[in-house]
Amino acid sequence: MLASASPRRKQLLEQLGWPVEVQAVDIDETPWPDEPADEYCLRMSVEKSAAAKLCVKTAGPILTADTTVVHKNIILGKPKDAAEAFTVLKRLSGSVHEVYTAVTVEYQGGAHSMINRSEVKFAEINEAQITAYIATGEPMDKAGSYGIQGLAAMWIEHISGSYSGIMGLPLFETTQLLHKLDIISPLDVSMTL
Length: 193
Description:
Maf protein, five-stranded antiparallel sheet, 7 helices
């Protein structure tokens, strides 16, 4: 069970061979004052897991995740509107930012979490490019106002870390958590034959 409305997370889990059911949970995602970005990201994943455990009915594992984009120690959430998306993208232009993605898997009373950190270097982008990108609607549901798997990829000069983590679900860490809880994917089984 994926307790997230993110179609990207669903796609990434299916890429690993998992049949995925989706039942999103909603929590207050307000950062605490002076909360470090990595701690905030991990807290969001754990709180989503606790909320999912209360409302999701399944005997299978429940996976939650949170992605946090940070530029110069400022957390850049999902934009509220086009103006905020513009401000965020202008801020990211020509600079390096960090992307944290935390994953929590809850299964049979056990819950484990991991966090992934990546860096992304954006090229210089001008105001016309930013405006045109916002007009596509793509940045509106994404932390940091962009999706690495979409049109914004043309501005990404370099990444250091996990592409899937930047996309919203670090597959290496996710697989490690599933194995820790003795959950083996269909792909794992077929690769050992």
